[in-house]
Amino acid sequence: MTVPLEILHKPGKLTPAEFQIIKSHTTTAYDMLKFSKRKFIQAAAVIALQHHEKWDGSGYPNRLAGENHPHLRPNRQCRRRFRCLDP
Questions:
Q1: Domain boundaries in the chain?
Q2: Which among 53, 36, 54 is positioned nearest to 45, based on CA atoms?
Q3: 12, 21, 31, 50: which has the highest count of C-beta atoms within 10 A?
Q4: What predicted TM-score, i.e. pTM, was given to this entire model?
Q5: What's phi and psi for 56, nearest 5 deg?
Q6: At what angle do helices 39-50 and 16-33 cross, to 10 degrees?
């Protein structure tokens, strides 16, 4: 949406400057969606912002790691339920 097609469809390796442009799609999408009054769109804004974050903190844009990433945080309730099912 905000990344030029020539960068998006580039056949070879991206330059560091091109990769910065690619990485900006997370914050640009978040900025477009964050003011919605609809909860669904607000959730989509957060997902747009954080969908390239990684557990080890090597993702972008905020380099969230482990427990600092709300969507990657292990679900304690789910773990408890699976423990109960485990013989």
A1: 17-85
A2: 36
A3: 50
A4: 0.70
A5: -85, 0
A6: 170
